[in-house]
Amino acid sequence: MVRSSATVPAVREDLERRGVHIVEDDGTPQVGLLLFDVVGPELEAALREWSHASGARIIAIALHADALSAGKTWRLLAAGAKEVVVWQPDDVAAVIAARWERWNEVDRLLESPLVSSYVVGGSPVLRQVLRQIVEVAVFTTTSVLLLGESGTGKEQVARLIHSLDRRPDKGELITVDSATIVPELSGSEFFGHERGAFTGAASRRDGAFALAHKGTLFLDEVGELPEALQAQLLRVVQERTYKRVGGNQWFEIDFRLISATNRDLPAEVERKGFRADFFYRIGTWTFRLPPLRERREHILPLAEHFAQLSLDKRERRNVILDERVCEFLLRRDYPGNVRELRQVVERLCARHVGVGPLTAGDIPPDDLPPASERAEQRLDSAVEEAVQRGFGLKEISQVAREAAIRAALSAAARNVPRAAKMLKVTDRALQMELAKRQD
Ligand SMILES: Nc1ncnc2c1ncn2[C@@H]1O[C@H](COP(=O)(O)OP(=O)(O)OP(=O)(O)O)[C@@H](O)[C@H]1O
Questions:
Q1: Residue 289 alpha carbon, nearest atom of ligand 1
Q2: Which domain holds residue 24?
Q3: CATH of the domain at 198
């Protein structure tokens, strides 16, 4: 049986009082309540259709606990439910209202200037990850592991998480680059040391854990962390206590751990190249940031953002990238991901004369595509123009064919065998083409 929330007026009124508006037949995309007592293909199909058609976030509510099992819950989530709960007359409205409030808060933050000042790009693939990141950042202090190729924005996301963290008296964001840690000093780097703990320890020093107290410890390149150190850190991450090197006193710490790596850490764990226990501890939440090639629609918004940042320094406002520059940026590949794009844009900005948009003349010669690619671009623009002018495929092919033959004959000083070679056809084929034209 499927009942709409309208059949439970008391709940509906309670929710309205709490500011939760139930989806009406007009499909306003807010929250939908689906009350059921049997999970079956019919209910799943209705749910699938409803969630697709309305864009509403649907909370599926079992009228009694027996109606729900783990398997049924997963099926309802797969069919589009955003939450699955059992009806509890006393607190169902409060549960729904709280869930609704949290969704709204995350939506509001996703649209906020704060989030977009850290992370530019609104494609569905990034937004889906970002939505979860924002929720984890605001409502938890659990460990986060960021995976992704170099330059995809892992450090940037770590900064965002720290800035969204709502702990009172929030501490600082402390970054440790695991790749540059000197093994002999690694203990001191993390735990600090007492005076005289080792040769050269002239005075007591705090380590990264002490500095990150009440804040965030960002462990960059965590995949490079030596195994012995992984074991030492595991203890601290689990127990939240540590001792300075050469000291006896235990210190308690409260920090959020964010780790990042461009290595395929799950695969390394599988082949025993990284400790599994440490991996599971650091990755309570694991997010993978997509490479730029999987979200090419971000190239121009990111380029505008970086151009603005770069030219802001020279007090230029509202920079515009002209059509050629956009084309140039869109045609390029970025194996170094967002970092590489940023560097390219900074090079363009460095050549900018200070007035007008960024133009082709701002592209450093070394960045220009090779001549063959430029010819291809010109050909593309000509074809584009022909299509816009209403030429059909047949006409365009014919005109291109004739232009190619003319160009080859002219370049070969009308020597047919040579022109045929340039066109990669046999002499006879070219002769036949020319004969056709004389008919
Ligand atoms: N979505 C984004 N919006 C704005 N700037 C971004 C975004 N992603 C990355 N950047 C910028 O791109 C550059 C590289 O990003 P970042 O250092 O965060 O990458 P990373 O994944 O940590 O790289 P690595 O693995 O090499 O350390 C930085 O200058 C960062 O500010």
A1: 21
A2: 2-108
A3: 3.40.50.300
According to the model, what pLDDT value does residue 9 have? 61
pLDDT in tens, 270-312: 999 899 999 999 999 999 999 999 999 999 999 999 999 888 7
Pocket of ligand 1 contains residue 150 by CB under 6 Å: yes
Q: Where would I find the beta strands (DSSP E) of 158-275?
A: 173-177, 216-220, 241-243, 250-252, 256-261
Instruction: ipTM value, please give it.
Output: 0.97
Residue closest to 100 by CA, chosen among 33, 37, 195, 38: 33
What is the C-alpha to C-alpha distance for residues 114 and 131, in angstroms, rounded to an integer? 14
417 found inside a domain: yes
277 and 243 part of one domain? yes
Number of independent structural domains in the chain? 4
| Per-residue pLDDT reduced to its tens digit, 108-160 | 999 999 999 999 988 888 888 999 999 999 999 999 999 999 999 999 999 99
Pairing of strands 81-86, 57-62: parallel
If asked whether residues 208 and 259 sit together in one domain, one would say yes
Task: Tell whether 282 and 306 lie within a shared domain.
Answer: no
User: How far, in Å, is the centroid of ligand 1 from the Cα of 154?
Assistant: 6
Nearest CA to ligand 1 atom 16: 153
155 lines ligand 1 (CB under 6 A): yes
CA of 365 to the centre of ligand 1 (A): 25
